[in-house]
Amino acid sequence: MLFRQELINGLTLGGIYALVAMSFSIIFSVTKTFHFAHGAVYMWVAYVVATLQGPWGFVPALLAGLVTSLGLTLLIELIVYRPMRRNGAGGLAIFVASLGVLIVLENLVPVVFGSQVRPLNLPGLPASVHIGEYVIPSAGLVSLVLAVVVVVALVAMFRYTHLGRSFRAVASNPQMSTLVGLEAKRRYLLAFGLGALVLWPAAVFNSATTGVNPGLAENIILITLIAVIVGGVESVPGAALGGWLIGLSQSLSSLFFSSQWQTAVAFGVCIVFILFRPTGILGRTVLRSGV
């Protein structure tokens, strides 16, 4: 029974990781931008919803969280990344800039919201659902269902819609795609917007379980990067699978180790994949020189 309960916990936790990993992977797979500031946006969404749900009510606070996710993400693209690309900045320079944005936004949170831990409640939902002998957190169950729906929708979008095909064309060759009428800058902005949209519910539902605290940004971005590496850096469904694998690994490891070791377990899984399958679960194999 305990194993099955931890398996359920791992699937629900993995649903959160899958959503965040997919949101990161959408942006990276299209724009090749290592959007490390994604963790700070996640934290701001959680704080905005938790702060405003008391005076405003849950639905307006939820919509404010959506505006925050889209607004911050698009602003970072427009005023940080785009000018750097225009001036010929490389991937490393953009990564360092993204890290700087993460630090700035993270340090602004205590100034704007305070440093205390805040609860985030989901009105109308019980804290947990009992199915036979098993207990499933309601927020985790919603996240699991939503993650499955999102990964199916994204796979269908990338494969069968004009937008998805244009994303793939821009990702493959931005200069050539411009010559055939696909403006790369517009597709980049759409990719950032879609990533922000997927990030929004993950921040809300995970914070409903864990609470909102100043350490959210660093924790979630580290787990997200591990999930993306495990799943395949440029694969959106691979990122989802990586998220579920990390969630299951962390949850099942609690049968043998203290919960304090969960982050170490995630890094351990990452190291195994780097050593034996560096492309990740669904990553593409690249030509190696043999050196």
Structure overview:
The chain has 291 residues and is mostly helical. It has a domain at 16-213. It is 75% helix and 3% strand. It is built from 11 helices and 2 strands; from the N terminus they run ααααββααααααα. It has helices at 2-31, 38-56, 58-86, 91-113, 138-160, 162-172, 174-179, 184-210, 216-231, 236-253, 262-276; strands at 128-131, 134-137. The chain has a two-stranded antiparallel ribbon. β1 and β2 (134-137) form a beta hairpin. α2 (38-56) packs across α9 and α9 (216-231) packs across α10. The longest helix is centred in the first third of the chain and has 30 residues, at 2-31. Mean pLDDT is 89; it is low at 286-291.
Give a brief outline of the structure:
With 291 residues, the protein is mainly α. The chain is 75% helix and 3% strand. It has helices at residues 2-31, 38-56, 58-86, 91-113, 138-160, 162-172, 174-179, 184-210, 216-231, 236-253, 262-276; strands at residues 128-131, 134-137.
